[in-house]
Amino acid sequence: MSGLTPSQTVGPWFAYGLTPEGKYDWSDLATGNLITPDVVGDRIRIEGIVRDGDGTPMPDAMIEIWQADGQGRLPGQSNGAAPNTSFKGFGRCPTDPKGTFWFETVKPGSVPAPDGKPQAPHILIAVFARGLLTHLYTRVYFADETSNASDPVLKLVPADRRDTLIAKKETQAGKTLYRFDIRLQGEGETVFFDV
């Protein structure tokens, strides 16, 4: 038997895994708002575009994030302080027809690495898209964090590639926005981690 079957590639059918019949209703699907009444931290927006190897925006990708709150507490963790009861630290957002994704959240605090040393504030990302047999993992770091220089994971990335993991800070209508574009391959490819 020759040729590819749906079990061998994500192919053009990826959108069907996101929504019934592959139809998007962006207002219902975008679950990128992580803000809860008891969330601790500075409110921010992360926004970006997912691009393929040719630099073309991908209108059918999905981004998931996991993060700590502003005090570095992971969901359900209290670290001796009052627990962050309703902040889940998880969000999912499909890209829109222009390849754009967004998250309303808080800037995370530092969490310890497995060796106990502090990591720079960051957000974990998983990218799901057509043509990927398994999702890709990366991180978002923040351009205005001095602790990036000592982050144990970021230090493992070659210096000339680290900028693909750094979100650039902007201000829009008096609110903090971090721009973080994702390039799946090609020139300026985002660094992805083998986990």
Q: What descriptive keywords fit this protein?
A:
195 residues, mainly beta, 2 helices, 28% strand
Helix count equals 2
- If you compute it from the alpha carbons, what radius of gyration comes out, rounded to the nearest whole angstrom? 17 Å
Largest sheet: 9 strands, mixed
Strand content: 25-35%
* Element-by-element helix/strand order: HHEEEEEEEEE
Q: Structural class of the secondary elements? A: mainly beta
Mean pLDDT metric = 84
Q: Ends: how far apart? A: 33 Å
**Residue share in helices?**
under 10%
Approximate shape? globular
Q: Which oligomeric form is depicted?
A: single chain
Describe the structure.
5% of the residues lie in helices and 28% in strands. It is built from 2 helices and 9 strands, in the order H-H-E-E-E-E-E-E-E-E-E. Strands 1, 2, 3, 4, 5, 6, 7, 8 and 9 form a 9-stranded mixed β-sheet that branches. The radius of gyration is 17 Å and the shape is globular. The protein starts with 13 loop residues before the first helix and ends in a 12-residue tail after the last strand. About 13% of the residues have low confidence.
Entry summary:
5% of the residues lie in helices and 28% in strands.
Secondary structure elements and their pairing?
Blueprint: H1 14-18, H2 26-29, E1 43-51, E2 62-66, E3 90-94, E4 100-106, E5 122-128, E6 136-142, E7 166-172, E8 175-179, E9 182-183
Parallel strand pairs: 1-8, 1-9, 6-7
Antiparallel strand pairs: 1-4, 2-3, 2-5, 5-6, 7-8
